[in-house]
Design brief:
The chain has 351 residues and is mostly beta strands. The chain has one domain: Beta Barrel (Lipocalin). The chain has strands at residues 8-12, 26-31, 38-49, 75-79, 82-83, 92-93, 97-101, 105-120, 123-138, 141-148, 151-163, 168-180, 207-218, 221-231, 239-241, 244-253, 256-257, 261-274, 277-279, 282-283, 289-302, 305-317, 326-337. Strand 5 and strand 6 form a beta hairpin. It is globular, with a radius of gyration of 21 Å.
Length: 351
């Protein structure tokens, strides 16, 4: 079997908006199932903790930390124009004092159900349904929010899908889609107050996205580049996330290649840029986001089952004094690929 039929990238886009939380593009790993429909479940985790201007430590799992009545429990009260949630883009201009606790945190987790169906050897249709589980602690107040997020539908066309020689292989894919405002974006706390917009499962807006994916392989080595651009609309309350772009670069190695078992370790990088949060077309201060992550990944395949894992740490992040630090980003996904032999639209070779 040629290398072409061993390596193809599954491009999946997740739906609900979370600034600095890979909201418009999510690389799902490498898969050796060429032009095959499939079903996937994916779990994503991202956390923020520790104020850098206070010299706080940051923790990957901040909600599991316990603090005694020590200096870690102390706080600093600062008079500035920001309150609300405090990672790189979770700030709203409201005024007043903000207390900075070491134990403040924000955690964003999402479980997704994904489906991919090839209607033609070169055309795939995709759908993503997320279930959002977010939590935060600020100024001694804890909040948890759960619910179905916004659904994303998109299609992709495999423009180039061939091998050039026995040693060189490449593939080029273009795609576009829409995010539909299915998720609740007006959940309230126990006191009847609306929970912070950026913690909500949904955004209330119709958003559009386009992406390009390129994969190149040489013998046992290869790389994948995935770039996505997203245009975000306004919701009923005139809240809007600025347009954004995300870029993944993954360098992989074909470590083991047997009939049923395949292993692909990889080095991964991720860059995201977002204009910021707008309310009534006014850009909120300190909400611009720019982050660069790097980490490792592993793709394991057994017969028609794929297991994809990745873990990334921040290398660079645009910081503001009032914001929590980005700590990590991780993902684990499980996919079942069908043995698809027929397509709704036949290619010339099938006719």
């Amino acid at each position: 079997m040629s290398f072409k039929n061993k390596i193809v990238v599954a491009i999946m886009l997740h739906s609900n908006y979370m600034l600095a939380c890979d909201f418009c593009g999510c690389y799902m790993g490498i898969t050796p199932y060429d032009n095959q429909s499939g079903m996937s479940v994916l779990y994503r985790y991202k956390s923020f903790s520790g104020y850098p201007d206070q010299g706080h430590k940051n923790y990957i799992f901040p909600s599991s930390r316990s603090y005694s009545s020590s200096s870690n429990n102390s706080f600093t009260s600062v008079n500035n124009s920001y309150s609300g949630y405090k990672h790189g883009t979770h700030t709203t201009v409201l005024g007043g004092d903000t207390m900075k606790f070491q134990r403040d945190y924000e955690i964003f987790t999402t479980a997704e159900l994904r489906a991919k169906y090839f209607i033609h050897k070169r055309i795939e249709l995709n759908g993503v349904v997320p279930f959002v589980m977010n939590s935060a602690r600020q100024n001694e107040v804890k909040q948890k929010i759960n619910g179905v997020g916004d659904i994303t539908l998109f299609a992709a066309y495999h423009l180039i899908s061939r091998i050039m020689t026995e040693k060189y292989q490449h593939r080029l894919i273009f795609g576009a889609g829409v995010k539909l405002p299915v998720g609740d974006y007006y959940q309230k706390d126990a006191d009847g107050n609306r929970i912070d917009f950026l913690l909500q499962p949904g955004t209330g807006s119709v958003d559009y996205l386009a992406y390009v994916n390129y994969i190149f392989g040489y013998k046992k080595f290869g790389f994948n580049l995935n770039s996505t651009y997203k245009i975000n609309g306004d919701n009923f309350y005139k809240e809007r996330i600025g347009n954004s772009s995300t870029n993944y670069l993954n360098i992989f190695y074909k470590f083991r290649q047997e009939k049923d078992l395949k292993l692909f370790p990889s080095i991964q990088t991720y860059y995201e840029h977002t204009e910021g949060l707008y309310v009534f077309d006014k850009l909120q201060k300190a909400t611009k986001m720019e982050v660069f992550n790097a980490g490792i990944g592993l793709d394991v395949f057994y017969k028609n089952i794929a297991l994809n894992m990745s873990f990334q740490l921040p290398v660079y992040e645009k910081r503001f004094e009032s914001n929590l630090q980005n700590t990590s980003k991780m993902m684990i996904g499980l996919t079942y690929n069908f043995n698809q032999k027929k397509y709704l639209i036949k290619s010339k070779t099938q006719e």
